[in-house]
Amino acid sequence: MSDRSYRPACPRLPAPMSVLAAATLSALLAGAWPSCAVAQARGGPAASGAGIYTCVDDRGRRLTSDRPIPDCVAKEQRVLNSDGSLRRVVPPTLTAEERAEQEAAERRAALERAAKADAVRRDRNLVIRYPNEASHRKAREAALDTVRMAIRATEQRVQELAVERKPLLEEAEFYQGRQMPLRLKQQIDANDAAVEAQRAAATNQEAELVRVNRLYDAELAHLRKLWAGALPGSLGAIPTAEPPPPSRAAASAAR
Question: What is this structure's pTM?
Fold first, then answer.
């Protein structure tokens, strides 16, 4: 595409001018730039001062037009005023791949902003919930008491199973040297499985005590920095302690 395919920016009539001089110059424009004369007569873009688009294409040619230049869609285009001063810069049109990358970057930035806002909100709520170390210690003890109650319930159930097991063993002694009735064997096996499940539960509950303490330790370290004046959201996430996985015996008992 040659330079002749672009419409040059129309020159503007200088002011002030006499009526005769303006008429004479307009006649000259009509001969040299007929499209400009028509546009000015109609009050089109040239008359309204839409600006002059200019750019350098891939061949190194400087192109000028009164509208965006198709050969420079992938390049920056400068829009000039009639006096040659810069009005604005039109950024290059992105390719589909560039547009996808830009959108992905914008999504990542939005996620980062949301995560930052969540961290700020979390820290502020944490300080409101625990204004001092005493309030945090009280919450820790309440959480530990829940686990301790479960441990006591497990210990009590183990004792009950031991009581239930005693008459079964006494009855089993009667069948020494003989085949034990199926009913009695099933009762003893069920008692054994229940005891094993309770022991596994006790192991998990002890691990839960450790997990809760670690969780509150990490939270307390985080809070101490906030109480000392650290900005909410500036400390990162609080390390969490994952609960222990259930043992096979506990899982079997649950089923």
Answer: 0.55
